[in-house]
Amino acid sequence: MLSHFFSDQLIQWQHQYGRKGLPWQGYQSPYLTWVSEIMLQQTQVDNAKPYFIRFIKHYPNVQTLAEANPEDVMRDWAGLGYYARARNLHLSAKIIHQQHNNQFPNSIEELIKLPGIGRSTAGAILAFGFKQRGVILDGNVKRVLSRFFGIFNNPHYQRGNHFYWQVSHLVTPTIDCDVYTQAIMDIGATVCHVKTPQCQICPLQSKCYAEHYHCQHHLPIKKLKKKPKTLKKLFILPVKSGKVGLTRQHTSNIWKGLWCPIIIDTTTSVFDFSHIHYRHIIKDLKHVFTHQTWKIDCILVYPPNDLHNQIDAWYDIHQLDQIGLPKPMQTIKEMIQYEKNLLHETAETT
């Protein structure tokens, strides 16, 4: 059967050519698998590795993560983006700690009840963490399945996605499921590339639909992308006695729980500078989200008398490494550290 050829070839390939030595490999640990899988959502392997190593050093097991201060968790996640992942990790750890006595659930039904764990992440936890049969379906898997079997169903619609799950269930073996699961992820990441598939070294080449019909670049069916909106933002950093004033994001879906400057949307509104003393330290800093791009200007404001009611806390510049900051703020922090004398000026006019 074609499904047996598919899984057998991938398992053989994985033993010889698959990625080895990743920091989350070599351990049969549902916890390590879970953390790595969450980090690898929307984040490339090379970017995730240093974060994973640091995260596990600080939170080596479910209990330490569950008992951690949310502020510390957000700090250790800062820079990875998609911060709901960190909040869900912490919340799920607390549930496992309190309701499961620190023992990871080992069934798909119980795993997907945890915040932030979907079917594919649950399948990976079963395969790698428990050596059970677990079915996954991420972007790499969809691409490999679509090209090999010639699947023209649109994975971005419910019916098409359901069909992909059926195929993934069909080809996932019971024996060596963990090896197969790593193989299909690795072949998608290192061989079956989106734009430049390396078909000449692919173990599936001889029976691959897309290779036979030369339609690799048409599969899988792509989602029509909307052009991201560009928004102009003004970051205001009040300065007082060598400290900067920050506000904690409580409602923002983007940076909820992180410490930020006062943020003004200047795309549709104009900020009145006439009543303040300020200095520009950054102009046109670009930050790209999935759905929008921000062009950021940042100013230091002193004295910050009119802004006190918008500030949640004052931090010394040397304390900023101890709190969770979004990525643009990391750049701003470096600029401030480079010009520390700015923090000690009492007034400046433009």
Q: What series of H and E elements makes up the topology?
A: HHHHHHHHHHHHEEEEEEEH
- Gyration radius from CA atoms, angstroms: 24 Å
- Domain count, please report it: 2
β-strand number? 7
Care to describe what's here?
40% of the residues lie in helices and 14% in strands. With 350 residues, the protein is of the alpha+beta class. Helix 1 (2-17) crosses helix 11 (177-190) and helix 9 (139-149) crosses helix 11 (177-190). The chain is globular, with a radius of gyration of 24 Å.
What are the SSEs and their pairings?
Elements: H1 2-17, H2 30-40, H3 45-58, H4 62-66, H5 70-77, H6 84-99, H7 108-111, H8 119-129, H9 139-149, H10 158-171, H11 177-190, H12 209-213, E1 229-240, E2 243-248, E3 259-260, E4 262-265, E5 278-288, E6 292-301, E7 313-316, H13 327-338
Parallel strand pairs: 1-6
Antiparallel strand pairs: 1-2, 1-4, 2-3, 2-7, 5-6
Helix pairs in contact: 1-11, 2-3, 2-8, 9-11
Provide a brief overview of the structure.
Helix content is about 40%, strand content about 15%.
Please name the defining characteristics of this protein:
350 residues; alpha+beta; 13 helices; Endonuclease III, domain 1; globular; 7 strands
